[in-house]
Design brief:
Helices cover 39% and strands 19% of the residues.
Length: 460
């Protein structure tokens, strides 16, 4: 196909939603329209840089032995990327014939013999073929049967589902201390809202322009209901611009569970859903904001950090909590204050003096929180190391987190089967804080089985 034929064919199939350079200087989206579709191009870049390392990490086999289903493939650009990455078998599904026509053109143009595209209703489609991995990126906001679609994906997937969506409404958190028996054991509830997107605002073809927005918790609950466990939220490698329509996109990875009773056990352990599903190193961190005076602002659990840009290629929470070049505080506002003070004329001078970019007490609390996360991941040696660092820090004040640290050290010893060591740690905890009820409960359990098992013991 010569240049003139290519340009004519692209124009016939257009307008295009996503940007590919077919030949040098020849793009699916003409340069004059890049500004109007800037939001799509930014998200395309975000996915292209975030997804490949995650696919490698969570695949049980190399790409040449891995099959992938791309649900809501749109114009096929992501299936094209998977083809370039060397995946064995790729199936793209989309509900709209115009998108599939563009995808089939890409297939012929790039001779993607191991890639197929199918026009089918995503709300009801259930493929008979099994795939190692499933992708559904930017789709769940635009379908009217999300739970049914997730159940169908569960049926045709052997391994992991990679899910990306807009989360423009927050989780509702029940703050009342009284138990709500009519709402179950969970203290965190998912939210959703819907609206009709105006034609001139359309970024993709939707079901009659109806768009759904879910809180992260709502999507997590739907994934659990459909049979996915170990749902983790990962830190993107690329920050989306702040104050931008898609700046609250959430990236989940969910593992298919074949255990019939897994959902019940997950609900019982659901005192804090972020803790219940923290099974992998990237479970909790989220990118909050980009580009604040040369820092990326990161949230991990209940703490926030300012990390110099260019040092986020591989997020390692252990390196973050131990690195005094990273600001650490309980809120984003406080992190900004620390950075401002640090970089202001007459300030500490980050590049010259290498002083602490945060309060030691905040950093102690952050290490305690990360240690708890590591214990949940059974990374016991790393958790013990963090807790010991806090206990042995020079100048550590007397009114600190020592009781909690001794309690967590006891949990580590208990997980290792060292019950006598665990007992000593819990006794130290109670010596400092006689009202530390969780330590009392653990010692009581060591003394003998309770007459009746209360639900609260499942949380310890």
């Amino acid at each position: 196909m010569n240049l003139a034929e290519l340009e004519q064919r692209l124009q016939e199939l257009g307008p295009w939603n996503f940007l590919l350079e077919m030949q040098p200087g020849v793009f699916t989206i003409p340069r004059m329209h890049w500004k109007g579709l800037w939001h799509n191009i930014v998200v395309q870049d975000y996915i292209a840089k975030t997804l490949p390392p995650l696919l490698t990490r969570f695949s049980a086999a190399p790409p040449a032995e891995t099959s992938v289903i791309d649900i809501g493939c749109n114009e096929g650009w992501l299936s094209w990327l998977l083809f370039r990455l060397g995946y064995q078998r790729i199936l793209g599904i989309d509900s709209h014939p115009a998108n599939i026509n563009k995808a089939l053109f890409l297939k012929d143009y790039y001779r993607m013999t191991n890639v197929d595209f199918l026009c089918a209703d995503i709300n009801t489609f259930r493929p008979e073929e099994q795939f190692d991995l499933a992708l559904m990126l930017g789709v769940i906001n635009h379908i009217h049967n999300p739970v049914g679609v997730l159940e169908n994906i569960h049926a045709c997937t052997r391994g992991y589902l990679f899910l990306d969506f807009d989360a423009l409404c927050a989780d509702y958190i029940e703050t009342s201390p009284e138990p709500k028996f009519d709402t179950g054991l969970s203290s965190v509830y998912g939210n959703m809202r819907c609206y009709f997107e105006r034609s001139h605002q359309m970024t993709s073809t939707t079901d009659n322009h109806l768009v759904f927005q879910y809180s992260p918790r709502a999507v997590l609950m739907m994934l659990n209901f459909a049979g996915f466990s170990e749902v983790v939220r990962v830190l993107p490698r690329v920050a989306l611009p702040p104050h931008y329509k898609n700046d609250k996109r959430v990236f989940f990875i969910a593992r298919k569970s074949d255990t019939p009773d897994f959902l019940e056990s997950e609900i019982l352990l659901d005192r804090d859903y972020a803790e219940s599903f923290a099974q992998l190193p990237d479970a909790l961190p989220t990118l909050m904001e980009e580009g604040y005076r040369g820092f990326n602002l990161i949230g991990y659990g209940n703490f926030h950090y300012g990390i110099p840009q260019g040092e986020m290629e591989d997020f390692d929470i252990l390196a973050v909590v131990n690195n005094k070049r990273y600001a650490c505080a309980k809120t984003l506002a406080r992190v900004k204050q620390v950075i401002d003070r640090h970089l202001s004329p007459g300030g500490m001078g980050w590049l010259s003096r290498q002083k602490d970019l945060g309060d030691d007490a905040d950093r102690d609390l952050a290490k305690l929180e990360v240690a708890r996360d590591l214990i949940r991941q059974s990374r016991l040696a790393e958790a013990r190391g963090l807790l010991t660092e806090v206990l042995e820090r020079p100048g550590r004040p007397g009114s600190d987190q020592a009781p909690s640290i001794y309690y967590e050290l006891g949990r580590i010893a208990g997980k290792e089967g060292k019950l006598e060591e665990a007992r000593k740690y819990w006794e130290k905890c109670l010596a400092l804080d006689p009202d530390f009820h969780r330590a009392k409960g653990q010692l009581a359990r060591l003394a003998g089985p309770p007459p009746a098992l209360g639900c609260h013991t499942l949380f310890d």
